Amino acid sequence: MPTHTDQLPIPAGYDGPILLVHGGAWDIPDKALDDHRDGLRQALSRGRTLLEAGAPAVEVVREVVATMEAHGAFDAGRGAVLTDQGTVELDAGLMDGRTHTFGAVAGLTRFPHPIRIADTVRTEGQGKVRLMMGSGAEVFAERHGHTPVDPAMLIHPREQARFEALREAARYHTSDSFRAPRGTVGCVVRDGQGSLAAATSTGGTPYRPAGRVGDSPLPGGGFYATSHAAASATGWGEAIATVLLCGRAVWEAGAANSAEELVRVRLQHMAQTVQSPSGAPATGGIILVTKDGQATWGYSTPRMARGCWLAGQACNVAI
User: Fold this and answer.
1) DSSP H or E run through 239
2) Bridge partners of residue 105, in order along the sequence
3) Which listed residue (5, 184, 200, 234) is catalytic?
4) pTM of the entire structure?
5) Is position 242 annotated as part of the catalytic site?
6) pLDDT value of position 12
7) How far apart (Å, rounded) are the C-alpha atoms in residues 91 and 109?
8) Residue 91 and residue 106 in contact, taking contact as beta carbons nearer than 8 Å
9) Which of 270, 307, 303 is nearest to 4 (CA)?
10) Beta strands in 127-278 (DSSP E)
C-alpha cells in the first residue's frame, strides 16, 4: 500500500491558528463516508469557534476530540468498537506543548469523554500521575466531577453487530485487514499565540482481548507535543507504539526541511520495521503541525478521514 501525504498550503507569513483533525485511517466503507464527513465538520466547527475566541491550544484539542467522541461515526466514545467480551474500553491522551505536560487514561468503561478525564489527570494529578487506568482512573474521574453513565449507553448498535460477526469468525487479527475499523480520533493545533497541543482518543481495535491498551494513551506513540511541533496518530496501535511514531515525528520536525517528507519517512519506517503475523507491513496515519506553520497529514491505508481550518478560510474535510 503506497504512502499518501499532503502538505497543506499555508499562506506566506501566516501566523494565525492552524487546526487539523483526523477520524481514523483504514478502508472506510462508502456507506460510512457521509457520517465521517459530518463528524469532521462538527469537530472543525467546534475548534474554529474556540480558536476565534482566543482559547489556548490544549483546550481546543480537548474539546474538538470530545466532539468526535460524542458523534458516533468514529471508533471513540459512543462509537467505540467492542472487546472480545462485548464491552467498551476507552483510552485517550493529550499534551500541552507549551508546558510539556500530558495526561492520559486507559480502559475506561463508564465515561463517554475520556479525553476530558485525561486533561483532568494532566491538570489535577499534581505531577504524581500522568497516566491512569481502569477502576482507579474512574474513581479519580468521579472525584473530580466527571459523571459516569451506564456502560450499555456506550455500545453503538453498529458495533454490537460487528462484535457478533467477529465472534463467529474462525480467525481474526486486526493488523491484517484495512477493513477493521481504525477510527481513532485526533487533533493538533497551533493557537493564535503560537502554542501547540495534541490529543488522541480511541475505542481500541475490534474484538481485542479485554484489557489491551494500544498507542493512543501513550505519549510519543499516539500523541505528542512540544513548543516546536504536535502530532496525533491512528492505525495499528502496537506498531505505532513500537516506533514511537508521534514522538519521533515531533522531535525530528525542527530539523526537517519538509514536514510532508518527514511524515512520509516515519510511516515508511514503521512499515519496514513492524509486520503483522501474516507478514503484512504496519499501516496507519498521522497529522502534524509545526511552530513555523507547516501542516501535513499522511497515511498508508486506502483512506483517512481528515480535515483542517485556517483563520479566514472555510473548514475543509477529505477522506
Assistant:
1) helix 237-243
2) 92, 132
3) 184
4) 0.95
5) no
6) 87
7) 10
8) yes
9) 303
10) 131-133, 185-190, 196-202, 223-225, 229-235
Question: Residue 274 is which amino acid?
Answer: V
SS3 state of residue 143: helix
Retrieve residue 124's grid coordinates.
489535577
Q: For residues 113 and 61, give the distance between their C-alpha atoms in angstroms, rounded to a whole number.
A: 13
Nearest alpha-carbon partner for 149 in 109, 118, 115 = 109
What is the DSSP secondary structure assignment for residue 126, as one 8-state letter? T
| Cα–Cα distance for residue pair 76/284, rounded to 1 Å | 16
Judge residue 70's burial from the number of C-beta atoms within 10 Å of its C-beta, 0-12 exposed, 13-18 middle, 19 or more buried: middle
Residue with cell 448498535: 157
User: CB under 8 Å to 3, separation ≥6 — which residues?
Assistant: 264, 267, 268, 271, 298, 299, 300
How confident is the model at residue 255, as a pLDDT? 87
Distance CA 3, CA 300 (A): 4
DSSP for residue 219: B
The sign of the CA dihedral 149, 152, 157, 161 is: positive
Question: Which grid cell is 1?
Answer: 500500500
pLDDT at 166: 87
**One-letter amino acid for residue 1 of the chain:** M
- Antiparallel, parallel or unpaired: β 131-133 and 229-235: unpaired
Give residue 207's region: left, alpha or beta (phi > 0; psi -120 to 50): left
Q: In which residue are the cell numbers 504536535 written?
A: 230
Mean pLDDT by 10 residues, the chain (319 residues): 89 94 95 97 98 98 98 96 96 98 98 98 92 98 97 96 84 56 89 98 95 97 98 96 98 92 97 92 96 96 97 96
